[in-house]
Design goal:
Blueprint (H helix, E strand, L loop, with lengths): L13 H18 L17 H8 L8 H14 L2 E2 L5 H5 L6 H14 L16 H7 L3 E2 L7 H5 L4 E11 L25 E10 L3 E9 L6 E3 L4 E3 L2 E11 L2 E12 L28 E4 L9 E11 L2 E14 L2 E2 L7 E3 L2 E2 L7 H6 L3 E13 L5 E16 L13 E15 L2 E10 L4 E10 L4 E10 L20 E10 L5 E12 L10 E12 L5 E15 L10 E17 L3 E14 L4 E14 L4 E11 L6 E2 L13 E2 L2 E12 L4 E12 L4 E2 L6 E2 L2 E12 L1
Length: 709
């Protein structure tokens, strides 16, 4: 390795690469990182996706970008990319490779043809061993494409996963009704959580999956008319891929990601994080199965992608599903129903929640065409999405909702494209909704030499731009009523040090929820990473955001709009001996204040230890936290079971600890046990409403088993 962290094996010409491929490659299979002396490929081992996301977005928030990113990475992990057919957009979607590395990869494959082994990645210019180790769980080299009938007999994945758990303390929703209390509502189900996942798949050829979930308090029922089939939430998909001109066919639940996410964003919006460069570009990954337990943001029906020509793919889909809402008769037109909002919490525990479950029908018809330039430097796409509801949507009659979507039908049309010229990647998308509102986003990513990367992103979303499945980058949760400019830079003088940062300035031309005036804000982030070797990793972060908000508990009929300032500082230390043990220490502190008011501060100290014995893996945490109130709460990722995501909020004062065990009962079966507890020193009542717990502690016990056929 040289001082810049690049591989010492470079592609100087075709002959050199051929010598590496056919002479040194077999030796690499023996001497580099192989547990089995005669292994052909590195093992596709389990990874901690929670830790991967923590490195990517170290300062978490309470929006759904973190869980959405988890689902994206889960899809890539369970359906790894075949390096011999992966496109530049698909490689970008891994969020691991830079534009310079992707260009080197495409050039290498074009020169030498199909990859023979994953070890060959070390021969690609600009690829270093750290990047390759991060990439390996998400890629593969398929030696042979089997006929469909034969491939069904040789799945790459075939497993059944069962998970259950419960809170050990009693919540109010599970208690007996107190005759002296006005509250008579209670949860209708048992206090147990249950989750089932089944998958039968072969990467690049087919995938069949079933997901079922019951949250604590939800009861089993059977209402096919509202798409309830036993468990509270059921999701199924059947997918066939790469059968001649038919590139993709999905029946069941699926998502669509096209362009920069203005029209269809694949179910989530990627937030801003320590990866200041790659997050500005969204890959067109197209149709993919929906396997999450999130009960909104997906389509249900049939979808297909067909290759009309070598460079032109066309996707069509139809979806009909049920959404949660509280429809009421307008009293004006017979049988006309109206809802103020569509509910996305996914909870159906009380009688009212169950009555709202699946009460509104939603139909989507979509089209996407993608033309890839013959130079392989870029692509142009067109997207159309038409959405219709069985009830008319009319939000609460407040001034900030004046330009929000109203009615029961919306159509949005968008055009997107990107082009790579030398070391600069240009990209953008524009869209128009039925209301006449416009949305636009455009930017570039530039490699300024081997040590500096730069990105610039401009965005504008009209206050009446309505994209119901859009998730383009924004300060708000949806691309509406916002104008902004974002720029980021990363400097890596050598493989040990990396410095990065971003600055984002945004403007809301119209009122927003709890912001009763047009407003401005800005957001900046600084990150320094030191990684002297593959075992030790240290980084420090500073993040500050200025944003407007109504004055809380205002004395005036119209509250004043004040500037709020949220600061977060973090230091993280990690030491890991692969396959043996790891130690992680994290110090995180922050503050939040309204202009002219007292500051709310909080701090968290976290110690994680994981240790692998011969078979048993033990993971533990102990954390101390102290915050003045909920405003200065701290979000900290936790290690959880395979395919589980955990991001609790630490607030008030107390300790948080957990112990998790993983043990293989046999070659095909593994079990997990996890106990966690939060103890508060000042509070006598935890949470509120039906989630209320009397006492100072909240404990949870979970168990999981996976059987691989």
């Amino acid at each position: 390795m040289n001082s810049n962290g690049k591989s010492d094996v470079f592609v100087n010409n075709k002959a050199t690469c051929a010598i590496f491929r056919y002479f040194f490659l077999p030796l690499l299979g023996i001497f580099i990182g192989c547990q089995n002396l005669f292994a052909q490929e590195p093992p596709h081992q389990e990874i901690d996706l929670n830790q991967f996301i923590q490195d990517f977005i170290p300062i978490a928030s309470d929006d759904n970008s973190n869980s959405g990113l988890y689902e994206l990475l889960f899809q890539l992990y369970t359906n790894p990319l075949d390096l011999n057919v992966a496109t530049a957009d698909e490689l970008t979607a891994t969020l691991i490779l830079s534009d310079t590395q992707i260009k080197s990869f495409i050039d290498y494959r074009k020169k030498l043809g199909p990859f023979l082994s994953l070890y060959e990645l070390q021969a690609i210019p600009d690829f270093d061993l750290i990047t390759i180790r991060r990439l390996l769980p998400f890629v593969m080299v398929r030696a042979i494409i089997l006929p469909l009938k034969e491939s069904f007999q040789n799945p790459g994945q075939h497993f059944l996963l069962l998970r259950s758990g419960r809170l050990l303390e009693e919540q109010k929703g599970f208690s007996s009704i107190d005759t002296a209390s006005r509250s008579t509502s209670r949860y209708q189900g048992k206090p147990f959580y249950g989750n089932l996942r089944y998958r039968y798949a072969r990467a690049g050829q087919y995938s069949f999956g079933l997901t079922m979930e019951n949250d604590a308090g939800e009861k089993l029922s059977w209402k096919p008319g509202r798409q309830i089939f036993g468990a509270d939430f059921t999701s199924f998909h059947a997918q066939i891929m790469n059968r001649g001109k038919l590139k993709n066919l999905i029946i069941g639940d699926y998502q669509m990601q096209a362009g920069q996410g203005l029209v269809m964003a694949g179910g989530f919006s990627l937030g801003k994080g320590s990866e200041v460069i790659r997050t500005t570009y969204r890959s067109t990954t197209g149709l993919r199965p929906f396997t999450s337990v999130l009960e909104a943001g997906f389509f249900r029906g049939v979808a297909a992608t067909y290759s009309v020509r070598k460079q032109l793919d066309v996707s069509l889909f139809y979806s009909y599903t049920r959404r949660d809402g509280n429809p009421e008769s307008t009293g004006e037109v017979e049988d006309e129903l109206r809802v103020s909002s569509l509910q996305i919490s996914g909870y159906h525990r009380t009688q009212t929640e169950r009555e709202n479950y699946g009460a509104v029908g939603e139909q989507n018809v979509g089209f996407h065409a993608l033309y890839k330039l013959s130079s392989q430097r870029g692509q142009i796409g067109m997207t159309i999405l038409s959405t219709a509801y069985s009830a008319s949507l009319h939000k609460k009659d407040d001034l900030y909702n004046k330009f929000e979507f109203q009615g029961n039908q919306n159509t949005v049309i968008g055009f997107h494209g990107d082009y790579r010229w030398q070391n600069i990647h240009f990209f953008g998308e524009g869209a128009r909704s039925k209301s006449g509102g416009l949305g636009g986003i455009g930017g570039l990513i530039a490699g300024l030499g081997k040590t500096i990367d730069f990105t610039l992103l401009l965005r504008h979303y009209d206050r009446n731009f309505h994209s119901l499945y859009g998730g383009a980058i924004s300060e708000a949760t949806r691309p509406i009523n916002e104008t902004g400019v974002y720029w980021g830079v990363r400097y890596a003088p050598n493989r040990r040090w990396q410095f990065s940062g971003f600055y984002d300035r945004f403007h809301f031309p119209w009122l927003k929820y709890q912001i009763d005036a047009p407003s401005d804000g800005h957001d900046y982030f600084l990150h320094a990473l030191w990684k002297p070797n593959k075992k030790l990793n240290m980084y420090a972060i500073f993040h500050e955001k200025h944003k407007a908000h109504n004055e809380p508990e205002s004395q005036f009929p119209i509250p004043r709009v004040l500037e709020t300032i949220r600061r977060t500082v973090m230091m993280n230390f990690e030491y890991e001996v692969p396959l043996r043990f790891s130690v992680r220490t994290r110090l995180q502190g922050g503050s939040f204040r309204y202009e002219g008011k007292a500051k709310s501060s909080g701090i968290t100290i976290v110690q994680d230890i994981s240790y692998r014995f011969s078979k048993l893996e033990l993971s533990t945490r102990i954390a101390f936290f102290k915050t003045d109130d909920y405003d200065s709460r701290q979000y900290v990722y936790e290690k959880d079971m395979l395919y589980a995501f955990s991001l609790p909020a630490y607030y008030d004062q107390g300790t948080r600890h957990y112990v998790m065990l993983r043990y293989p009962l046999s070659k095909k079966m593994k079990v997990w046990l996890r106990w966690s507890q939060t103890r508060y020193t000042k509070m006598d009542t935890i949470s509120s409403g039906l989630s209320e717990i009397q006492g100072k502690k909240r404990s949870e016990l979970k168990a999981q088993v996976i059987y691989q056929f």
